[in-house]
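[job 4471] stage=fold_predict status=RUNNING
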Amino acid sequence: MAAKRNTNLGKRARAAGAPRRFAKGLSWAAAHGALAAALVVQAPNAAAQDGAAGEEIYQGVCRNCHGPTAKGMASYPRLVGHEAAYLIDRLKTYRAGEQVSWNSALMIPHAQPLSDADIENIAAYLTGLDP
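[job 4471] inference complete, writing structure tokens
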């Protein structure tokens, strides 16, 4: 005997404009619930990102080349205006010692001592600045 489905959730979802089936055998509500759960698991912990701690690290080391407002100086690139994911990826690449561009030799020694939390904090600080 097949289990009886709770159709109330489906009726409410359809009333809100959801399609009858989101994917084969998967209701709209179940698909969006699974998506929301996946995003929560994969997203960096926003509470763990501390812009103030990131500012302290940035002002102590990074500002010497990238400038006090991260808008770049001379041949050193601008950091404001980039997405956090880009900044995090680039710093982790430098930390791993990988050659990215002409300035890798300058960046690698500065990135190697950074923890994941330090990198996320720096990205949080930089993404909070006005471009």
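[job 4471] summary: The two ends are 62 Å apart (CA to CA).
[job 4471] exit 0
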